[in-house]
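Hey, quick one: can you model this chain's 3D structure?
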Amino acid sequence: MAGKGKASKKKKKSASDRKQAVLKLVLSDTCRVCKTPCARGMRYYENMKQPGAVGKGVPCILTRTFV
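Sure thing. Here's the predicted structure for all 67 residues.
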């Protein structure tokens, strides 16, 4: 009966221990010259072409880093 002991439990990672994705904010001029345009970036670029449009940028999925 050797070898029968308690099974070790794996410690679950809490929400604060997980890596979190961080996206950089880019402006419409960056979206305009992007080599791989995304739908979000192109929509933002089209909105910023309107006269009097004010924007603070859009998160770019291509600049994703994990912290």
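One thing worth noting: The chain is about 20% helix and 20% strand.
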